[in-house]
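ugh ok fine here u go
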Amino acid sequence: MPSKLFTRRAFTATAFAALATAMLPAPVLALSEGGARKLVDAVVADINRVIASGKSEGAMIRDFEGIFVKYADVPTIARYALGVDARRASGGQLNAFTKAFQGYISKKYGKRFREFIGGKIEVKSARPIKAGYEVRTTAYLSGEAPFEVVFLVSDKSGRDRFFNMFIEGVSLLQTERTEIGAMLDRRKGNIDQLIADLSKA
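structure:
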């Protein structure tokens, strides 16, 4: 049986969210419930617009990457995905990995946008949590039962950004961290090689 994260339903939610990240809980700064919900509303509107645009696959991928960069704390996302190996990476390697990871994620999920034309996601509720705010949404896909997608939002980076997302309880970034770790293991821990291969993926 395929993993839940790679089922058609789970992938749809992944694409809709532009893939965000997990990071350690931090004190809430100026972020409010309204601000968190506004951010999710904006992401949902942008994603739904891309889905309905009728653009080519390549154009959708470019739009997806733009959404990811605009609404996610990309440096935190990349660092978390790299895991403990981020501690031994140089500043230059971290910057290069962040850029490569950004493109890798955008291509991995964005190239399948056209499969989900007609789908949509709606914001339902928001509540405070230790690390920021949790925003619950419902994703709808033609021919599928609605399913829940939960976004976590924080302003730890200095701006309101997504830092994790869960599809029916499954953390997407944790899955990406596992996959990136496996990729690095196959390259015997060579971060530069991982960066080069992600850039070509």
